[in-house]
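Notes to self, DNA-binding transcriptional regulator, LysR family:
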Amino acid sequence: MIDVRRLQILREVARLGSFNRAATTLRITPSAVSQQISALERSLGTAVAIRSTRGVELTEAGRVLVDAGDAIAAELASAEHEIGRLAKADTGKLTVATFTSGGQRLLPAALTRFAQERPGVELAVLENEPEDAVPLVREGAADLALVYHYDGPPPQPAGLCFTPLMADPMWIALPDGHHLAGRDAVTVADLAAERWVHGCLVVGDMLDHYAAMAGYEPRVACRGTDYVFAQSLVRAGVGISMIPEVALTSGVTTVRLRPPCPTRYIGIVMPKRRPNPLAEILAEALEKTVAALDK
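result:
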């Protein structure tokens, strides 16, 4: 039988990459961490972590254990959250985590639908990027997260369920009077001579990749982290910007970006087991909101 406490210690070592940092977080000594990991290895008959001058690296067996530990921790957090709610007879609260543009474009209409069905529910909304929102759901600090990912398979976080909502294609925001404004669509290759304004660092990195495929290196005027700010700079004539459709603001000239190019995908993350029934109602409201966008 695997000792749950030792599994918790291994998860902290994996998360922090160091016995010393894990010891500080767990409020035990580094030697105690080392002893517990050694005891875990003896019980399994195989190594789970390798220490080096660069820190700690997990073995394949260690990675399997940490994945299992994440799933167990998610289940325990969900159970604790559910029991706490039952104990307090507190079924009238819902906490939602969302990224900024999703919170601006999709969430308000969904919350309006939700409030019509459950007017007495106390809502809390947390603004977080997906890498921070998903752990909140896993830990029970949020009941639902509105998240996104880019090209590739959707995330499969341990103990959680990802439900796709929509593809969010990229557009190019242009200054007024730009010579490409009359086009139905453009490609990344058409934009080699332009100066760029980034509203997201990840999108900027992806632009570098697609521009390299087209044979050029983008000239960047601003590396920002806010799509609204980026579009204000575009309107001021600073450059052009690659913006997901959901993040577009009114009053900016746009043209569709044709493949090859990145696409953003938006979805919902909730616990696999025992989700808050109110979160399921909001998830349905989000699906209806997205469906209405296509009409």
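- The domain at 76-167+265-293 is CATH 3.40.190.10 (D-Maltodextrin-Binding Protein; domain 2).
- DSSP finds ten helices and twelve strands in the chain.
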